[in-house]
Structure formats: C-alpha cells, structure tokens
Amino acid sequence: MSARRPGADVRGDFPVLSRTVRDGRPLVYLDSGATSQRPTSVLDAERRFAETSHAAVHRGAHALAEEATDAYEDARARIAGFVGARAQDVVLTKNATEGLNLVAYSLGNAGHTPGAEHLALGPGDEVVVTEMEHHANLVPWQELCRRTGATLRWYGVTDDGHLDLGSLELSQRTKVVALTHASNVLGTITPVAELVRRAKAVGALVVLDACQSVPHLPVDLPALGVDLAAWSGHKMLGPTGIGCLWGRGDLLDAMPPFLTGGSMIEVVRMERSTYAAPPQKFEAGVPMVSQAVGLAAAVDYLEAIGMDAVAAHERALAARLLAGLEDLGGVRVVGPPLVEGTERGGTVAFVVDGVHAHDVGQVLDSRGVAVRVGHHCAWPLHRRLGVQATVRASTHVYSTEADVDALLAGLREVQRFFGVAPAVAPLAVSTSQGAPA
C-alpha cells in the first residue's frame, strides 16, 4: 500500500477542519506553529486508554496499573524511535518549556550535587543563545545566569534572517550553547552542525530547541551531535500537556533532578533520599499517561506519511505563499527567501505595509482564516528586525494550496479595506508599429 500524501488526502482525518467559523465560513487553519490539530487516530488513542486502562503508572500491581505502565513505556519507546533515540534517554515532560527549564534548573544546582560538579556554572562562565530564540529558550537561560553569576551572550541575526555566525566567538568560558533548530518566526533552519563543532571545540554543552523541527522535518537527534533537545507534543499532531526532553545517557545520569517527590526516588529515609535512574529521575509524580499514548499515535500517523513528504509538502506551500505575497505587493516578508539549496522551513511571517498585524489578523479572522499575530514569543527578534508585530502563517500535514490561496485573498481584502493596496502599474499602450507609448 502506498504512503498517504499530505494535503487534501488527509484532511478528513482531522475533524476540526470540517467545521465553520464566523458566520459559516470554512475554517482555514494556518496557525500550526502555535499548536497543531489532532487526527482522529490520536483522539481515539487517548479516549481508548482512558476508557479501558486508566491507572497510575509505576505504582500498583493490579491489572490496570500494569496495562497503564506498559502503555506509557511503549509510548516512550515509539516517541524515542521517531528521533533516533533510545527510550531510556527520553524524559516525558509537560511541554518543551518545562524541558528547557528542567535543564537550566538542573545545571543551576549542579554545583551542590556530588558527581555533577563538572556541569556547574559560576561567575565568569558564559551561556550563549541566539537572537532568534523564542522566550522558552531564552528566559530560562537568563534565570540560570542570574542565579549563578554567569553571563548571557548571543549570536546576532542578519537583516535577511540568517544567523550571523561572525557576531560572536565562543571561548573556554562558554559552558552552554542553547539554540533553536528552526525559527518559529523566520522559518530559518540554523546551521546546527557548525554550531556543534564550535561548541565542542571549547567543551560546551549544546541544548537544542526542536519545537519547530521535530514536527516538520526528519530529525535524528543523536546524529546531530547535540547533548540535549526539547520539543512539544501538541505541535506534532499530539495532545497538549506533554513534551519531550532527550539527552545523552551519561549526561542525564549526572544531572541533578528537577522536581522531587514520588516516582523519582530509589530509597527514601527520613534524613535523605536517593534517586532513580533516568528517565524516572526527572518524572516526579504521576505522569500524563493518556497524553503519552496520544503522542505515540501521532508518531505513528506522521511515520505512515513520512517526514520527508511532510517537509516537502510544507516547503511547497511556503513557496506558493512567498510567490503570492510578492505578487500582492505592499508586504514585507521577514526571514530568508526560499531558493534552491536554502535551509528553510514552512513558516512565513510578514508585515502588511500601513496596517498593524492585529488589524490584519482581525480581517483574516472575519473570513475564517486563522493566523498568529504579534511577536510570537520572540520579542527580541522583532526588535532586531525593527517591527512591532508580524503576521505568521504556519502549515502542517493537513494544509493545502487552497488554504494559502484563501490567505492571499484575505490579504487583498485587508489592503482594500485599509486603503493601502499598492498602485498597479499602468499597462503599456501600443501606438503605431507596436511601439510603447
């Protein structure tokens, strides 16, 4: 049986896409960068688990507890396989933000934890990020620096939305390099291999924010050479309330726990406790089991289509949108162009000349077109680009050319409504002998 093709062929798998909004208009969903929609198979997996096997995992010896534990650990194994990892190296978290905070908090406590002292940061050390990070991969590192006395530095961004690799030199003081794999605003895919090479040359850890790459591209985390990586389930057709943190096994072994309490312990006495091996060491309390089961179903769904096909589909839609915006005129795209050989994802952010992004979004919403407007949790990047807010269109496996065309038609209406439509160049009028006037 041939693989299913992304686009119109799979839209029937997503119930929400059949509904209407705003006085009966068909829903055009182009906000998958914020959160993606769930196919029926994911919804069914969550419901089936809740109806038949719901129980707390890793505690209790009854039948339901065993079934729930098996379902949870099987889900972990399938999720790990999706990114080329071992199950024991994947920690299930609430979301990517929690995963990144886990790392930053753990490193902040390393100096007080036997066996983890080599991970500790202090005054004189540096944490390096990039100017295109969204807040989830910026604020935790700001806090780590505040608590340890380390200094935060960053790679800048060029005017066309690429990482400026000449803007910063790493040194022996650099202890952590934390960067996004794909910008949630620009669509830029960062040169991870080069940054890993630079970081390893000075002995720094590399933490990857994979929120906008794992859901959209084929990704093998161990092969990338990074040390840790975090992403969210709800951006890859899975449920909200679950994310993933992958780490090198020896690193997870050494890192102090984040949250403490039940389920993450080895031996507990009144004076002190010892902790379980990873990943349980980082999963205190009863975890989100039905969400893990749902995320594993999302992995199955994406694998059945193929991540190469997903990436090619989104790149084709981005090409259609970028060409349409150029034809429209009066629109400034922020981010690199989509040309052959360019490492770029499907996210497209732009500014309509003379119209605030929120007004653009309101007109589009009135036509049933859902996009993201604002700074997209990437405020410093917007300041760097000299824009207060942008409109962002982001696609996924269920998006179609018709969605893109509906957005472009909506933008024509925006320009007409606000009276900012660019002047159309007059057609050349032939006089005698075909010479233009």
Automatic annotation (TrEMBL):
Q: What UniProt keywords are attached to this protein's entry? A: Pyridoxal phosphate, Transferase
Identify the PROSITE patterns for this entry: AA_TRANSFER_CLASS_5
Q: Which domain of life is it from?
A: Bacteria
CDD domains with a match to the protein in the record: SufS_like
Q: Which InterPro entries match?
A: Aminotrans_V_dom, Aminotrans_V_PyrdxlP_BS, Cys_dSase_SufS, PyrdxlP-dep_Trfase, PyrdxlP-dep_Trfase_major, PyrdxlP-dep_Trfase_small
Q: Give me the segments passing through the membrane.
A: none
Q: Which reaction does it catalyse?
A: (sulfur carrier)-H + L-cysteine = (sulfur carrier)-SH + L-alanine
Q: What is its EC number?
A: 2.8.1.7
Q: Name one GO molecular function term.
A: cysteine desulfurase activity
Aminotransferase class V domain ranges (all copies): 28-407
Q: What class of enzyme is it?
A: transferase
Cofactor(s) the protein requires to work = pyridoxal 5'-phosphate
Of which family is this protein a member?
Belongs to the class-V pyridoxal-phosphate-dependent aminotransferase family. Csd subfamily.
What the protein does comes down to: Catalyzes the removal of elemental sulfur and selenium atoms from L-cysteine, L-cystine, L-selenocysteine, and L-selenocystine to produce L-alanine.
Q: Please identify the protein, giving its name as recorded.
A: Cysteine desulfurase
Native source organism of the sequence: Aquipuribacter nitratireducens
Q: List the top taxonomic levels of the source.
A: Bacteria, Bacillati, Actinomycetota, Actinomycetes, Micrococcales
